[in-house]
């Protein structure tokens, strides 16, 4: 719907109210007509559906005091639907005047050109705010590109230290065959339904309206006159590209990373969408992870646990560290090697958590067996389960 069409329509007549009707009278008339011609009450009746659209359109303008004032001023300027014939209008008494000139669509209607009548970019710019709620008249608007989601699988070490990985992505991008216009000749026309904005408003009752993408141009604001054979007039085609993506250090399995502007390209100068990368991390045969800390289980002998000593512990991608094992260390005790864990967001590292696992030998030779028998006799008076039974009786 062009601005010219809006000015020429009599919304008071559509709602059946006088020009001096109050807001309450306008609201009452709209509600009555909306109930009568609502599509749900007239299923399959195309005339009723069209009438409901006209009623909603009229309410959108007259139900808003500011828009109503601008509409009344525009109607007064155009003499209720067009300029009146005046002296010198023409031999047959008709007024041969093209409204397209005033709205910037004819000779002399270009911005700042002769015949602009002191209105700069034409009256289309003056009334653009009235009929597009702050839109840009018939100018097509930039469109943001779509968001893309991809997945990447990293090794355990890459996840801890960070890595740059190639990602091959497929997304909708401006069609190269028609330069994104959707038209084979590169000359699409402005959508007459949304006047190039890509959006249409619909009334919901009570003076409110919702804005939806235009169904005729699918939100593009343009319609191909001779549709491109590659993109079928959409202006967008499937495109594949490979991008080197830096995965930051310290990512965890299942984490979703957002890369702004790295998604599908926008249209008509619009910004690109965002790229979301879901990270999968392979397990490590030795190390595990708890947040910013790495974990490792280190086997020790019975004598090392009982008598104490020093044990070497591997680290991820670095030299081994030596930990001092206190005498009488129990099985399952966890010690900490500071600064040997995963990288944090601030660049520092977490810790390496070392869990002791006492190994019980399966096969003993004669000297080892004799030594253990001697140890058993020496400690026969000690009962490690005495406290257990005492606690059980007390319970």
TrEMBL record:
It holds the Pfam family DnaJ. GO terms for molecular function: ATP binding; heat shock protein binding; unfolded protein binding; zinc ion binding. Its main location: cytoplasm. GO terms for cellular component: cytoplasm. Zn(2+) 2 binds at residues 191, 194, 214, 217. GO terms for biological process: DNA replication; protein refolding; response to heat. Signal peptide: none annotated. The keyword Zinc-finger applies. Its cofactor is Zn(2+). A zinc finger (CR-type) spans 162-240. Participates actively in the response to hyperosmotic and heat shock by preventing the aggregation of stress-denatured proteins and by disaggregating proteins, also in an autonomous, DnaK-independent fashion. Unfolded proteins bind initially to DnaJ; upon interaction with the DnaJ-bound protein, DnaK hydrolyzes its bound ATP, resulting in the formation of a stable complex. GrpE releases ADP from DnaK; ATP binding to DnaK triggers the release of the substrate protein, thus completing the reaction cycle. The J domain is necessary and sufficient to stimulate DnaK ATPase activity. Zinc center 1 plays an important role in the autonomous, DnaK-independent chaperone activity of DnaJ. Zinc center 2 is essential for interaction with DnaK and for DnaJ activity. Homodimer. This is Chaperone protein DnaJ. It comes from Streptomyces scopuliridis RB72. The gene is dnaJ.
């Amino acid at each position: 719907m062009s601005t010219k069409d809006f000015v020429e329509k009599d919304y008071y007549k559509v709602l059946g109210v006088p020009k001096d009707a109050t807001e309450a009278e306008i609201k009452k008339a709209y509600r009555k007509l909306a109930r009568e011609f609502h599509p749900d009450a007239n299923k399959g009746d195309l005339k009723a559906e069209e009438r409901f659209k006209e009623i909603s359109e009229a309410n959108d303008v007259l139900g808003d005091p500011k828009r109503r004032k601008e509409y009344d001023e525009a109607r007064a300027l155009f003499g209720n639907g067009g300029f009146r014939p005046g002296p010198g209008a023409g031999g047959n008494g008709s007024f041969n005047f093209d409204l397209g000139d005033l709205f910037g669509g004819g000779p002399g209607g270009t911005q700042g050109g002769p015949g602009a009548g002191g209105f700069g970019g034409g009256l289309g710019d003056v009334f653009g705010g009235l009929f597009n709620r702050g839109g840009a008249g018939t100018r097509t608007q930039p469109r943001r590109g779509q968001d893309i989601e991809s997945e990447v699988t990293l090794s355990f070490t890459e996840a801890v230290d960070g890595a740059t990985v190639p990602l091959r992505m497929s997304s909708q991008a401006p069609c190269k065959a028609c330069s994104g216009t959707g038209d084979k000749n590169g000359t699409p026309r402005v959508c007459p339904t949304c006047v190039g904005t890509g959006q249409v408003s619909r009334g919901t009752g009570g003076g409110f309206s919702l804005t939806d993408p235009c169904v005729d141009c699918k939100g593009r604001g343009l319609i191909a006159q001779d549709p491109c054979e590659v993109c079928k007039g959409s202006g967008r085609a499937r495109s594949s590209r490979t991008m080197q993506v830096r995965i930051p250090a310290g990512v965890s399995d299942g984490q979703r990373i957002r890369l702004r502007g790295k998604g599908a390209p926008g249209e008509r100068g619009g910004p690109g969408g965002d790229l979301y990368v879901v990270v999968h991390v392979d397990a490590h045969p030795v190390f595990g992870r708890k947040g910013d800390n790495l974990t490792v289980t280190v086997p020790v002998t019975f004598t090392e646990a009982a008598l104490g000593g020093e044990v070497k512990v591997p680290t991820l991608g670095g030299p081994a560290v030596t930990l001092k094992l206190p005498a009488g260390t129990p099985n399952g005790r966890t010690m900490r090697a500071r600064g040997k864990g995963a990288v944090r967001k601030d660049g520092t590292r977490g810790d390496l958590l070392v869990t002791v696992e006492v190994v019980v030998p399966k096969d003993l030779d004669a000297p080892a067996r004799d030594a253990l028998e001697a140890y058993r006799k020496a400690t026969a008076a000690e009962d490690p389960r005495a406290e257990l039974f005492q606690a059980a009786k007390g319970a």
